[in-house]
Amino acid sequence: MTNTLHRYSDHYAVEPAAEPRPVRDDYIVFAMASQGINDDDLVEKYRAFLRLALRHNPINIGDATKGGWLRPRNDLNPTTHWARAHDADPQAVISGIDGPTTVAAVFDNYEAMKAFVEDVKAAQLGISINISAPMDDAERCCKDVGIVRHSVEYSLGFQGHVEKLPDSTTLELSTMCGHGMIAADFAKKMIDWVKENRRTPEEAAGYMARFCSCGVFNTTRARRILNRARGVKG
Amino acid sequence: MRIDPNKCVACANCVPVCPMGAIHIDSGLGRATVDEDACVECFTCYRGMSKEHLNPRMVRAVRKVARFLRFRFDPEPDICPTDAITPQELAWPRIVRRAFSDPRVPHESTGIHGRGTAEVKTNDVTGRVRAGEAGFVIEFGRPGVGARFRDIQRVTTALADLGVEFEQNNPVTSLMRDVPRGLIREDILDEKVLSAIVEIKTQVENVPAVLGAVAKVRREVDTVISLGVSTRCDPEGKDPLRALLAREGYPAYRGKTNLGLGAATAAAEVRDGG
Predict the structure, then answer these.
(1) What does the alpha-carbon distance between residue B27 and residue B5 come to, in Å, rounded to a whole number?
(2) pTM (2 decimals)?
(3) How many domains does chain A have?
């Protein structure tokens, strides 16, 4: 499962820019227990992890088996079109954890991520904790918090018939659900709708987030990308 | 996946949400239709879209009037207004599509949700990748292209020629009929999946050879390949891969860092002492 590994940025362009723009608003911390090793009382460990995350203003939290804090609903009615609730529901994520899964918290700034990692270290939950982010930032966080990195995994980007991939703006959005649940065509549609002023970047980011099946979609970064696409610095 | 023609109102909301572009509005039928060969049974349309339960006849009548008047209206883009998307019961070998495409389906071979193992995400307690070793995750089809096992086999056989070790608890490995040669079961070779991950382990010094083997065949497969490589850090937290990857000309900007905060609480044996 590599659901947060290959998030596209300039660094992974087929023809990389001379000075790729750094990504400074996309930090994921996730927790994973291992069957038969440290999965005793795992539901409470996962809930504790996410409760700690809520102290640091994450922009999404998620349970890989049930989704993030914005989820699709099966009980909508015609009034939805005029008064749809776009509010996040973090408590539903936490209370919904009921067994083996992976849980994640997404932050849009380094300081929040670092403060959360400090809390997680102090909590001694005993399950595996990973940062998925630019590697330099993750390494800096470890040094700041006094953690020695155990293992690393690098994304080396895309190869093969890369001409089948969509444009870079679409890829930046669609790869924020690493499981591929946000279709490139839907991301393109959201870009177009924002450019046409049919939806706000906030609304478009929310629509995409609901398709992400494990809650690692970054709505802050999505808003920035959508604003950039319509020529607004965000 | 099917779209119930008795319920569908051809609103086309489901057309762009399909990661494989497998849904279109059939102009003859006036209904959304799924191209079964292109569909990978990822359930994105079924599970990702919210649902209303409107009367299809009423919705069609409203749409007909709006269309006659050339009205452009802005429905919510992620809703199926009549709950028309209907999963089918899947049989072998088609069931393989869902196993590799729907992240909510746990693989029997791994017990975890997703398309591979826990890689180095739990390396602090499993010791799967030890000092001096490199673990590769070679993913086919992502993002948004899809892959057939025949193409995946083209790469697994090339890797097998290098003598690499395929991860035993990996879903692709579990579907191989000859692991040492990297050969996949014949009856699934034409099945298409959203993505499949091949996992191998080798020594760090062999990383350039593996990268070279993938690079050699990458244009022979009708899809895209995403590569990830991992290793165990030394006692000071340094890793030997970064410099090696830079020398090989690969970007290593983003990735995952296992913080080593996991601990064995059960009577399990930890292979490399955490």
Answers:
(1) 13
(2) 0.95
(3) 1
Query: Chain A neighbours among B 101-160 (CB < 8 Å)?
Result: 103-104, 111-126, 129, 135, 137, 139, 141-145
Q: For chain B, what is the domain count?
A: 2
Instruction: Give dist(CA B77, CA B80) in Å, integer.
Output: 9
Residues B144 and B240 in one domain: yes
Residue A190: CA atoms inside 13 Å, Cβ hemisphere, count?
A: 31
Asked if residue B221 is part of any domain, the answer here is yes
ipTM of the complex: 0.96
Chain A CB contacts of B21 below 8 Å: 183, 185
Tens-digit pLDDT profile for residues B106-124: 766 545 455 667 788 999 9
B 205-264 residues with CB below 8 A of A? 211, 214-215, 218-219, 221-233, 235-237, 239, 241-242, 245, 250-264
Q: Are residues B116 and B244 in the same domain?
A: yes
Residue B199 has phi, psi (to 5 degrees) of -120, 130
Long-range contact pairs involving A224-230 (C-beta distance under 8 Å, separation at least 24) = A224/A25, A225/A169, A225/A172, A225/A173, A226/A173, A226/A190, A226/A191, A226/A194, A226/A201, A227/A194, A227/A201, A228/A169, A229/A169, A229/A191, A229/A194, A229/A195, A230/A194, A230/A195, A230/A201
Q: Is residue A234 part of a domain?
A: no
> Does B76 share its domain with B112?
no
Distance CA B121, CA B218 (A): 27
Residues B194-223 have pLDDT tens digits of 999 999 999 999 999 999 999 999 999 999
The pair of structure tokens assigned to B227 is: 């590569």
